[in-house]
Structure formats: structure tokens, C-alpha cells
Amino acid sequence: MTNRTRREEIAAGLAEVEERIEEACRAAGRTREEVTLVAVTKTYPASDVRLLAELGVRDVGENRDQEASAKARECADLGLAWHFIGQLQTNKVRSVVRYADVVHSVDRLRLVSALGGEAVRAGREVTCLVQVALDDDPARGGARPGDVPALADAVAATEGLRLGGVMAVAPLGEEPGRAFAGLREIARAVREAHPGADVVSAGMSGDLSEAVANGATHLRVGTALLGRRKPFVR
């Protein structure tokens, strides 16, 4: 496949996703400007990130540090905002803080303190979202809803960090609209305590319209933009 053909393929995917977002915004009585598209580029090469940037995408999401750090270095000249969206182990925090502008997966106090310490050391301010578990599957990460207020308070009080808001993944097998409606209430409570924490990261390729209907400000879209994933080859 030539680079030009790949560019056309990505442009077509982006146009289709944009149309879906605009339609969802219209249906929800919202403006397109209220929603940020985060292009999830995990398993895709840095060349795809460059093509997305050429097409106007400014926010890029990754969920594995080894892959993300290499791509962020390779694409450092593009001025992109990098979002770390995967589960984060504390031993990867130092690396992630070097390139991530936003960490979507803050789900425990130990991670808050690790992120804050490394952000201060790196001279950076990292925006953090509290990941909310909308089901009881610990393998998918996230804090239980009852633990979210204390985690949000901890992020807000930690030097080097900025509390951005909340993030969640719709539970498998559950109607996403119902799940995101629950997240909307949790997000409202966080915002009441911390008025600047207005980010709601929710919705992916299959459920973005339900997320927009329930107040999502950031959509994490990969497959619909870039096609079916293949194993990442460096």
C-alpha cells in the first residue's frame, strides 16, 4: 500500500467519524466544538500519526508506554497533545510523564502520588482524569464510584497535577447509554466540588453517539478512524 493510498484511507475514516460526531452533537443539542476527538493510534505506526496530524487531528491516544514513548519521540515536531489511556503501572509513570499531557486512567491514590512526584521532577503539569469503574471487572481498571470524590480531591491537591475530570469505558454487555448516564452524574458531582474539572472522557468507535448524548467531552476513537488493528510491528 502506498503512503498516498493510506492517507486517503485515513481521510475517509476521519470524514466518516466527523460526520457521526456532528450528527450526535445535533441530536444532543450540542455544538461540535464541545467535543474533542482523541485518535487512538495503538498498534499503528508513527507514519499514521503523521497522516492524522496532516489531516488536522491534534489529540492522540495510546495505551502502552513502550509503544507510546517511541511514537511521541518520533512525532515530537508535530505539536500534538498525547493522551495516555491505558491502565498505568507505577513503574511506568516516570516514562509516561515525559510525554503525556493527559492521563485518563488514574484509579488509585498510589498512582496519584507517583504521577505528582514525577511531574514535579520533570517540571511538567499533567492533566489527570479519574477513571471510573462502571462495572465490577477489576481487569478493566477504574475506581469504584464511591471512591471517586476522594481520588479527585487527591489529584487536585497534588503538586504537578491538574484535575481534568473523569473517564470511563462502557461495561461489556451493558447498554452504553445507561452506563454513560451514570458517569454523567458522577462527573457532575466532581465538577461541583472542582468547577474546572469539566472533562468527561467516554465513548469509542461503537458507542460515541451514546457518549455525546450523555455529555462526553472527549471521544477515544481508533478502529473507525484507522481500521482493524494488526499486531504492532516496530
UniProtKB/TrEMBL annotation:
Superkingdom per UniProt: Bacteria
UniProt keyword terms in alphabetical order: Pyridoxal phosphate
GO molecular function, one term: pyridoxal phosphate binding
One Pfam family it belongs to: Ala_racemase_N
PROSITE patterns linked: UPF0001
Domain Alanine racemase N-terminal: 21-228
CDD domains in UniProt: PLPDE_III_YBL036c_like
Family in the record: Belongs to the pyridoxal phosphate-binding protein YggS/PROSC family.
NCBIfam families to which the protein is assigned, alphabetical: YggS family pyridoxal phosphate-dependent enzyme
Protein name (database record): Pyridoxal phosphate homeostasis protein
